[in-house]
Structure formats: structure tokens, C-alpha cells
Amino acid sequence: EVQLLESGGGLVQPGGSLRLSCAASGFTFSSYAMSWVRQAPGKGLEWVSAISGSGGSTYYADSVKGRFTISRDNSKNTLYLQMNSLRAEDTAVYYCAKDRATAGPNGYMDVWGKGTTVTVSS
Amino acid sequence: DIQMTQSPSSLSASVGDRVTITCRASQGISNSLAWYQQKPGKAPKLLLYAASRLESGVPSRFSGSGSGTDYTLTISSLQPEDFATYYCQQYYSTPLLTFGGGTKVEIK
Fold first, then answer.
1. Would you call B53 helix, strand, or coil by DSSP?
2. Which of A11, A119, B1, B23 is deepest in the core (most CB within 10 A)?
3. Is A77 exposed, middle or buried (0-12, 13-18, 19+ CB in 10 A)?
4. Which residues, in sequence order, are CB contacts of A46 under 8 Å at separation 6+?
5. Do B99 and A106 touch (CB under 8 A)?
6. How many CB pairs under 8 A join A and B?
7. Does the distance separating the beta carbons of B44 and A45 come in below 8 Å?
8. Over the stretch B2-37, which tens digit does the pLDDT of each residue have?
9. Which has the closest alpha carbon to A64: A104, A42, A36, A41?
10. How far does the CA of residue A106 sit from the closest CA of chain B (Å)?
11. A100, B89: Cβ pair inside 8 Å?
């Protein structure tokens, strides 16, 4: 079964850091681009970042550029999101998601994790 | 950046109703559009991609159409399990993706 499982969320003070992980199973992880998408409480979906299958190309939304870093370890089938200089507006559920097609990023995602909650508050 | 505008933001409908949700892009996106369904406390689920291609396992009562800047998601006969929030998402500018604001489908 294809699965994604996020971890690493929690409560952090403004200006702090957090590292999210997403463990993948059931598919050839290195063949697929991966994305992080977040959802603030009561709000819609916002794409945050994406990374190619090899990890050689990374992409960010303007709202997180320079503060967040996406990476992956294909030997461990794990995706990461390093979040620095966190702000209250980064408070959200963070989902990792798999591209539907190989050789991406293609931009549409067929498998999503259950999400991990990040709360930025003093 | 490509902006995506969904309408309506919410609607009330009865089981068996035909429901249509509209998504408009700020520029042409050449059918590079996906639709997702999200239920409370759950992750989004891919319903359609390439504007009209049904994802495997998704019931055929869901369909998509459109071109250029205007796209629609239609549920031909609303079922109890379809009450949820629906999002469109453009991937024309992939990997820079944008979602619509969502349409909440509620029980009348």
C-alpha cells in the first residue's frame, strides 16, 4: 500500500525552527517529485515547496522562500522540510504529497499524508 | 502568479441533486487543472486531473470540463459521501502551484 506519514510538528515560538519529516512506503520514492502543502486553521490549501525525484531541483512559494528548505533522502525514502524563522502565519497542518506521474514535478498529487500540525505561538 | 477563483464558496444541496462548481484562472492554463475533495480532518483526495481525466477509483458521477481560463466540476447525482470541500488547483505554472479558495458542499 502506498503511504506517506508526516512527523515533526509541534508548538514553536516565533523565530524558532522545526524540521518536518515524511516517511514514504509502497512505491519507488526516488522516481517521484514530492511537495509540501499546508492548510492554516479554517483556511484553504497552500502549496509550500516541491522537490524533484533526484533532489537536484527545489522550488518554493514566495511566502517561505529563504526561510524553508526542502530536501529528501532517497536511501531512507524520506522527505524533509526544514522551517526556520517561523512566524505566526506559518501555523498550519502540513501535508506531504506525491506527484501522480514520474519525471516531475508534474503538479498534481495522488497520494497525501495525514498531515502534521505546526503551531507558531509565544 | 496565476490566481484561481472558485465559485460559489459554499452551496447547499440535496442527495440526488446535480452540482456544478466553477473555477476561473487569471490566465489561460491549457487544461492543467486538478480537482480535489477534502473531508473535515482528512487529507485532500485527487478526483480529476488534466481538467477532465478521472482518477482511478473515483466514481463516474464526478466529471470535469472546461478550457482556457474557465473550468467546472460536476457531480451528476450527489451522494451522502460527497458532502465535503472541493478545491481546484492549477499546475500550468508547475512546480509553482496555486489552489482555488474551495467550495464547501453542505446538506440542504
1. strand
2. B23
3. middle
4. A37, A38, A39, A40, A61, A63, A92, B99
5. no
6. 64
7. yes
8. 999 999 999 999 999 999 999 999 999 999 999 999
9. A36
10. 6
11. no
pLDDT reported for residue B108: 87
Whether residue A47 and residue B36 make contact (CB cut-off 8 A), yes or no, is: no
CB distance B66 to B3 below 8 Å: no
Nearest Cα to Cα of residue A10 among A111, A86, A98, A71: A86
Taking only the tens place, the pLDDT of each residue in A31-83 is 999 999 999 999 999 999 999 999 999 999 999 999 999 999 999 999 999 99
Hey, what's the cell of B35?
480537482
Sign of CA dihedral A29, B38, A10, B97: positive
Whether residues A33 and B96 touch (CB distance < 8 A) is answered with no
Q: How far is the C-alpha of A60 from the C-alpha of B26, rounded, in Å?
A: 21
